[in-house]
Design goal:
By secondary structure, the protein is an alpha+beta fold. It has 29 helices and 38 strands. Strands 12, 13, 14, 15, 16, 17 and 18 form a seven-stranded mixed β-sheet that branches.
């Protein structure tokens, strides 16, 4: 009976689907365990072998926990909104919902391309997903709840005093009773103070404008990354080297009215929460850096000959007497107001130039020094000396106040700037305010061993003393105060795109109004074009039916807008991260029509016990998810403060690219081992044209591209063309993609699963090498032969030997320890060792092979199910208890001693470990092999180390 993976795997995948084998229950007497993979985006390219790595790891763990008696929730769905689908729609004239559906379910798109479909690809790999809970963020029954959560954010404010969010109606009551003077809220800067009487006298529109300054989601004019080529705002992680990651279009900084979310309100809680979760230190550090907590002072500098002031946050108020100049971000609101006529042209040209660089690019570029003098001067708070005000792109509008009090003697970037512009436009000599420190070559940025000098009342003080005294003096003269600041900025929540969640918002007198929750979802309308309108409005500006009838409470024709009862709807859509900021909760109760999840389901599952995904989400997705979870906790909806208890970032599986080498100026290709000193052009070639011996299939290569059809070749001495190899990111553009479908078809999904786990530690990057997969396939065939020969099942009821039990229990312990420590690669090695040992022991004992099938099941579930069924069981192996490790089977009772004569080993003898030296010597001396070696002689000395060696000397 041969091992036939294709037949076996199709059988058991059908069985699991029909029997809903992996359906989790929301009420169970078993303990719960929630295992989650990061939300995949379903692209038309489908899966390559690098994508399933994390899914296989989470599946091994999920299956293991079921064997341990847990009620496991292991769901899967799709983050199906986003820019890629929209861009593909623009290019091909297809509807994004159509291409997204085909990408998930498979089929032929409008272009005639055959799409495998994510769902079918995932099913072929044999994952134990609870598919009954599948969610797609682009389905109205899902984004209905995203819209509802947005409304809750809009109707909430954050109380600093109590450290949590409350309903906006509570804030209105405070305003009605006592005004806002004593309110400790996270809100816009420069909120005007008003009394209760003033509030009560305001019009409804005036009140709404004020409340927008406090709401957790609000409209504001914000600096954004605008991409004219894509017609939309981009997040920082969608920009690479100043151009859009998708399409490579230029990106500029621009001010736009956008929806934003006050994630900054949760900065401290986001920091503190990192102490309570089991994440890698590198991911925690990424989040800490992104949040960027710093303690210092807010200092106010008056601008000479203006009514304006420049507010600066500094972590080093002790160095205030070292201020040599000030730098504003080019986008700072004050720049236009304080720039002198003489400097206007230079300033505007500089602003235009820097608008084309992203914030990330500016932060990363520490070598380029650039800036322009505004012509204005600020006044030093203490000395009253004039301080020149410059603009420079190393200062960001979105960080701090967008202004820097430059102390070159204590900061490297200020030092470089001051030296670069030395002697120009009022740039003074660098002033040294540190005693006994040489700054002739570099700034002194340390806070340690500092003694302040040349600083009036701060002379002789250290960093801590100087900081405390400087803040006290600033507060005394009304030009500063102590402050804790965060780098974390409020998140822009608008996108000028079509394929995203519509906002549940309409506008009355230009002010946003929320649509009542009972009328959700507000469904994305049909449009003819997915590009912005001719007058620059977002794509929804093309919708013919996109207005809100406040009487009928329905979406109606835009031609009916009268601003009396029918009003314009929001034209922007939500960003890609909206739906992925709460999706783990929807899995808990995926079919609930009335709420995103019931209280009972939320209470039962609580939070994700294990979350596996890529480290590229270290900041964006994970911060936004934690923010939404904390907000929903404040509202009594989420049961826990943190959404993900344990996080593991899987490493990337890299491709092994194949290269051919064309002689320069010719269409002749030379084999890698024949290049020598010849000048060649390396060209990537489809890896599917290359075999495991790195030999190129010439016919396939010539048929690949028209210009290769006439190619000539210089072969090696064996008449073969050998390609070069290089490990790179797996990508279609590198022609190094290997699909799991091909591997499953040839070797089976169990082989793929085992091989991906065998490649190396889960969290490390590792190259794919298809040549190595045959070894894993061979292992599975060898495993099969323990149970079957050509005539069928050969498992017997023989009592297992001591060696059989030792091999099994070694494996039980190793596999359990490895899964619990996520060291999956060493488990696969142990399986191979165990099967080799049992084969050499000629073991076919049911007492050994039944538990072995269970051990293998998390890794290779299809073959395990088949083995289990062939052993006579009628139910799935998936919830059979995991074998129990018994240490007694690993305790050595005997020792195989090497017996040496004058240091040379001549034979071995197995003896009990509890024998004394005298007993060992007696047995060895009586052994006929000893007598033969001695040939009648008596040894001078017998050296015995119990448990180690026996040596007869002389």
């Amino acid at each position: 009976m041969k091992y036939n993976p294709n037949e076996i795997e199709a059988k058991w995948q059908k069985y699991w689907a029909e029997n809903q084998t992996f359906a989790a229950k929301n009420n169970s007497e078993k303990p719960k365990h929630y295992v989650l993979d990061m939300f995949p985006y379903p692209s038309g390219a489908g899966l390559h072998v690098g994508h399933p790595l994390g899914y296989i790891a989470s599946d091994v763990y999920s299956r293991f926990k079921r064997h341990q008696g847990f009620n496991v929730l292991h769901p899967m769905g799709y983050d199906s909104f986003g820019l890629p689908a929209e861009q593909y729609a623009i290019q091909t004239g297809q509807r994004p919902e159509d291409t997204t559906r085909v990408n998930i379910d498979g089929g032929v798109d409008k272009e005639g391309k055959q799409i495998a479909g994510y769902r079918k690809q995932l099913d072929k790999i044999g994952f134990s997903f609870d598919w009954a809970r599948e969610v797609r963020t682009s389905n109205p029954d899902y984004y209905k709840h995203t819209q509802w959560i947005f409304i809750q954010l809009f109707n909430s404010w954050y109380c600093r005093k109590q450290g949590q969010a409350f309903d906006i109606s509570d804030l209105v009551k405070v305003f009605e009773e006592s005004g806002n003077a004593l309110v400790e809220a996270v809100c816009d800067d420069n909120v005007q103070i008003f009394t209760a009487d003033e509030w009560n006298s305001y019009s409804e529109d005036q009140k709404e404008k004020i409340l927008l300054q406090y709401r957790l989601t609000y409209l504001a004019e914000t600096e954004v990354n605008w991409c004219p080529g894509l017609g939309t705002v981009l997040a920082n992680d969608e920009i690479v080297n100043g151009v859009s990651e998708r399409g490579g279009f230029p990106v500029i900084r621009k001010k736009m009215t956008q929806w934003s979310m006050r994630i900054s309100a949760y900065a401290e809680r986001l920091l503190e929460g990192l102490n309570d979760i089991d994440w890698s230190e590198s991911i925690k550090e990424s989040q800490r850096n992104w949040i960027g907590k710093s303690v210092g002072a807010m200092v106010t500098f008056k601008v000479k000959n203006h009514d304006e002031v420049i507010d600066v946050f500094t972590t080093r108020p002790d160095t205030i007497f070292g201020v040599t100049f000030m730098t504003l971000a080019p986008e700072h609101d004050l720049v236009a107001k304080i720039t002198t006529p003489e400097q206007k042209e230079a300033v505007e040209a500089y602003i235009e130039k820097t608008s084309k660089r992203s914030e990330r690019e500016r932060m990363a570029d520490v070598k380029t020094i650039s800036g322009v003098f505004t012509g204005a001067y600020a006044e030093h708070p203490f000395t009253k000396e004039p301080v020149p005000v410059w603009i420079g792109d190393y200062v960001l509008a979105g960080y701090g106040t967008g202004a820097v009090m430059a102390v070159p003697c204590g900061d490297e970037r200020d030092y470089a700037f001051a030296n670069f512009f030395k002697g120009q436009n009022g740039m003074k000599e660098i002033r040294n305010i540190f005693a006994n420190v040489d700054i002739s070559e570099a700034a002194y940025g340390s806070k340690d061993n500092v003694e302040i000098a040349n600083s009036d009342f701060l002379n002789g003080l250290n960093y801590k003393e100087g900081t405390k005294k400087a803040i006290a003096k600033l507060e005394e003269i009304g030009q500063g105060t102590g402050k804790t600041n965060y780098r974390l900025r409020d998140a822009v929540f608008s996108r000028q795109r079509y394929w995203g969640e519509p906002f549940p918002v309409y506008y009355v007198n230009g002010l946003p109004k929320m649509i009542d929750a009972q009328h959700l979802p507000i469904i994305l309308p049909e449009v003819e074009k997915y590009l912005p309108t001719e007058d620059g409005l977002p794509p929804l500006g093309n919708a013919a039916v996109w207005a809100w009838d406040s009487v009928k409470c329905s979406v109606v024709s835009t031609q009916l807008i009268d601003n009396v009862s029918i009003f314009p709807l929001e034209l922007n859509t939500m960003p890609g991260w909206a739906g992925s900021s709460w999706y783990w909760m929807r899995y808990m109760d995926a079919h609930n029509e009335n709420e995103f999840a019931s209280k009972e389901a939320l209470k039962y599952w609580e939070s994700v016990d294990l979350y596996i995904g890529g480290s590229e989400h270290a900041t964006g997705h994970l911060l936004y998810s934690r923010f939404w979870n904390k907000f929903l906790k404040d509202k009594g909806l989420a049961p826990t403060e943190e959404p993900f208890k344990k996080l593991i970032n899987q490493g990337m599986i890299l491709g092994t690219t194949a290269y051919v080498y064309r002689l320069e100026g010719t269409n002749t290709f030379v084999s890698k081992n024949k290049i020598g000193d010849q000048k060649v052009q390396p060209i990537r070639v489809d890896v599917n044209f290359v075999n495991s011996s790195d030999e190129l299939n010439i016919e396939k290569f010539k048929a690949w591209r028209e210009d290769f059809g006439t190619a000539e070749f210089i072969f090696d001495e064996n008449g073969k063309y050998i390609v070069g190899r290089e490990v790179e990111k797996m990508s279609k553009s590198y022609y190094n993609v290997v699909t799991p479908d091909d591997i499953c078809a040839e070797y089976g999904a169990d082989t793929l699963r085992l091989y991906e786990m065998f490649l190396g530690p889960l969290e490390q990057a590792k190259p794919w090498n298809t040549a190595g997969i045959s070894g894993v396939f061979g292992f599975l065939k060898k495993l099969w032969r323990l149970y079957f020969d050509d005539n069928g099942l050969i498992v017997n009821n023989d009592e297992p030997t001591k060696d059989n039990l030792k091999s099994l229990h070694k494996t039980i312990k190793k596999v359990q320890d490895d899964i619990e420590n996520f060291s999956f690669n060493t488990s696969v090695s142990q399986f191979m060792i165990c099967v080799n040992e049992l084969s050499s022991q000629n073991c076919h004992s049911r007492a050994i092979l039944e538990p072995l099938a269970i051990l293998v099941s998390p890794y290779a579930p299809h073959i395990a199910e088949e083995l289990w069924a062939q052993l006579g069981h009628t139910t799935s192996i998936s919830e059979v208890p995991f074998p129990v490790f018994e240490e007694k089977h690993l305790v050595e009772t005997n020792k195989e001693y090497p017996v040496s004569f004058n240091g040379k080993m001549r034979f071995t003898i197995e003896l009990p470990l509890d024998l004394t030296k005298e007993q060992i010597e007696e047995i060895v001396m009586k052994d006929e092999r000893t007598q033969k070696q001695l040939d009648g002689r008596t040894p001078n000395k017998v050296i015995i180390v119990p448990g180690k060696i026996i040596n007869l000397v002389g």
